[in-house]
Specification:
Distance between the termini: 19 Å
Structural class: mainly beta
Number of strands: 8
Radius of gyration: 18 Å
Largest sheet: 8 strands, antiparallel
Shape: flat
Strand order of the largest sheet: 1-2-3-4-5-6-7-8
């Protein structure tokens, strides 16, 4: 779900016994931003946005198959979300961060999402939306953390 400030993945090598070189280590920058997150102001469904700004994605995979992935996005967007039973369009500023860390022992995904904007049909109406989630699976494949919050004003 995902927000998201600058983030950096600092290590290019990771210790697994002796130093293990990174199998893949990439960084991507884009100016067109878009995403869909699995939450709305009304509960289930999706909130999507498209616009322009800055997005940075980092991916590192080592020889053991462990991986670290982050993406940070911010910019000016048009956002579509369900609120009060209707699909509503808003323009404003979005910040989103997503991260995933995976190895043979566990997996963790987490994200934060923030939006502040005004209605495209009635600029006197505003929306502040915040969402965050954490999802963790242990080495036995059991979900040990599954937490999600959404607030809309």
């Amino acid at each position: 779900m995902a927000g998201l400030s600058a983030s950096a993945l600092l290590a290019a090598t990771f210790a697994v016994g002796a130093a293990t070189p990174a199998l893949a280590n990439t960084t991507t920058h884009t100016n067109t931003i878009n995403d869909a997150i699995p939450v709305t102001c009304d509960g289930s469904g999706f909130t999507s946005y498209t616009g322009s700004g800055n997005s940075v994605t980092h991916l590192t995979v080592n020889n053991a198959g462990d991986s670290w992935f982050t993406t940070t996005t911010e910019g000016t967007v048009t956002l579509q979300t369900l609120w009060n039973g209707a699909s509503t369009s808003w323009t404003g500023h979005v910040q989103e961060w997503f991260g995933s860390e995976d190895n043979n022992k566990n997996a963790v995904q987490h994200a934060t999402f923030n939006f502040n904007g005004t209605s495209t049909s009635d600029p006197s109406k505003s929306l502040t939306m915040h969402s965050a989630f954490t999802f963790t699976v242990n080495a036995n494949g059991a979900v040990v953390v599954n937490n999600q919050t959404v607030t809309c004003q």
